[in-house]
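Worked example 2:
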Amino acid sequence: MSVVFSFSPRRFVAIIVKEFVQMRRDRVTFGMMVGIPLLQLVLFGYAINSDPKHLPTAILDNDRSVFSRDMAMAMKNSLYFDFVTPLATEAQADEFLRLGRVQFVVTIPPDFGRDLIRGKRPAVLLSADATDPSATSNAVAAVEQAVGSVFNRDLTGPLAPLRSSDGPVELRMHARFNPEAVTQYNIVPGLMGVVLTMTLVIITSLAITRERERGTMENLLITPVKPIEVLLGKILPYMVVGYLQMVLIIVAARILFHVPVLGSLTLLFLVRFPSSWPIWGSASPFPPWPRTSCKPCRWPFLLSAVHLAFRFHVPLSGHARLGAMGGVGAAADPLSARGARYRPQGQRLFRHCPEPVADLPVSPRLARHRASALPADPGLDGRSRLRPSRSDRRIAMVSTLVSALRFDGLADGYDNSRPAPPAAVIDVLCRYAGMARPTRVADIGCGTGLSTRIWIGRAGAIVGVEPCDDMRRRARQSTDAVPGGETVRFVAGTSAATGLAPASVDIATCSQSLHWMEPEPAFAELARILRPGGVFAAIDADMTPSFGGPAEAAFFALRRRTKALEAQHRPTAVRRWDKAGHLARMEASGRFAFTRELLAHQIEPGSGLRLVGLALSLGSLAALLDHGLSEEECGLADLRREAAAMGDTPVPFHWSYRVRLGVTPQA
C-alpha cells in the first residue's frame, strides 16, 4: 500500500517532461497533432456549405419581354443562380439537366408579359436537379422572394394595381432525379467511397505492418519472392474484401434506406477497380516507417479527412453524374416552348453571349428595364436639364411597354380599320415649322404606320418609333407596298427612349398614342430630339365615326358599355391619360414656347365590316374579351347584327380630329 500511495511529484514531473521530449523527437506525430486539426478546419470550413451560391442555371425564355428579363436579372442578383447558357427548346433543357451541366432550368412561357399585365398570374417553371434537397430548397426559396420583390418594385405608380396578394407570378417547381427530396439518395452513395477509403487503407496498412511487428517480414525477404510479388500478394486479397464491402453496402442501402439501384452493377465494379489502386497504394509507403501496428492507423484518418473534404467540395452541378440514382420525368405541364415573339434585347445575362449594343446611359439599376438595344446618342448628357427623374423615366419605359403589349396581336385589324390623319395636318405642321419639306420627321408610337406613311413624299427622312414588334411588322409590310416607302424607317423604342439623336428632328407626332405615355418623360424626350423651333403634334381622332343609322348608335352603346365594364372589372391596370388634358400638360411641362389646339376633319369610305374591325381594334374591348367577358356582355354582338344589316355597300365615314400642337423654344 505504501508503494501505491507513495506518489512523488518529482517523478511525475519527470514523466511529463519525458513525454514532451518524446513528442519533440517524434516529429511525424507532433506534426499530425498540429497539422491535422488545422487541415480539417480549413478543408471543412471552406468545403462544407449547406447554402451554396452561384449554381449553374440555364433559361428558356419564350417571351423575351421586359418582364421576363426583369425576372432573370432578379434571380441572378440573388447570387444563387449563374446563367451559363440560353436554351432554345425543352428537349435541350432536359438534356442539360440530365447530363448535369446545369443545376436549374428556368422556363418562361410565351405571352408571359401579356398575361402579367392582364392579372392572369402567368406560371414560370423551375426544373431543378434535386439530388441534394437541402441546397435546392434554399435556392427555390430565393427565387420566390426575388420574383415577388422585383415585380413589387416594378409595378409602381400607374402600374401598382397589377400587384396581386398571391403574387404576380406563379412559380411551379419540378424536382428532377429526387422528387420526394429524400436525403439518403444523396448521402448513402457518397458514404460508399468514404467507408471504403477508411477501412481498406487501415486493413491494408495493418496487414503489411503486422509482418514487421511479428518479425515475419525478414522471413519473407530471405525467400526468392520479389518485393513487388510480396506487395501485390498482400494487396490483392484485400481487393476482394473491398468488393465484398461494396456488395454489403449496396444491399444495406437498398434494404435499410430504400435507395434505388439503377444502371449496370458490372460497370460500377469495373469503374471501382482503377479507382481503388490509389487507396491500396496509399498504404504501401507507410509500413517501412512504423515498426508497430498503431502508427499506420494515423495515416488513414488523415487521408480520410482530406478525401471526405474533397467529396463535400464537389460542385453541386456534378451531383447528377456522381450521386443520382436515376431520373424521374417532370410532370405534365402546360408550359411548352414555342417560338420566341421578341428578339433578345438589353442587358447580357449569359457569360457566353456577345456583348450587347450600347444603350441610353442609365444607371445599372435601370438597365434591367431596357426595352431595346438602340445605339447611344452622342451628347445625350449635354442636355441633362431636359431629362426627367430616374423614377419617372423607369415608370415611363415600363408603362409604355405594358401598353404596347395590349395591342400585340391586333396589328392587322388595327391597320385595316383605323383612320389615317388628314393630309391637311401636314400643311399646318410644316407652316409652323417654317419649312415646306422637313428634313426629318419622327412619328412616336407609330403603331402600324398609318400616321407615318402620310409623310411619304413630304419629308426627307421619316422615322416611326414603336415598342411593339407586331405593330412594327405590320407597319413595315404596309409601307413597303407604298411607292416611296423606302424613305421610312421603323425602329424599336419608347416615348421616353426613342434612340434618336439630340436636335435631329424637325417635326414629331403622336397619333392616337400620347394618352398611353407618361407625360413628363415623353415631353422631355421630345424636347431632346426636336431642333430649336421644332414642332410637336398630338393627333387624336374621335373613334366613333359619323355616318348615321342604327349601327352608329350600336357603336356608341358599345363604347359606353366597355367604359362601364372597364371600371367594374379592371381587366388591365395600364394608365390611360385623359386626351382632353393633353394641351394643359404640354403647357405645364415648360418644354414648349407656344401651344394651341386645332380641329380637322376627313371623310373615308366605310362599311359594316370596317365598323366591327374598328371595335375589335379598341384596346379596352380586347382587354375585356381576354378577361373572359362575352361579346353579348360587351355589346359587340349587337354591333355585329347592326353592321350585318349595313351590308358591304360603302358608306362615307366622317372623322373628326383634335390636334394639340407645341413649338419648342428658339435657340
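The longest helix spans residues 184-213. The chain has four domains: 2-47, 55-179+328-354, 185-322, 388-545+574-605+652-663.
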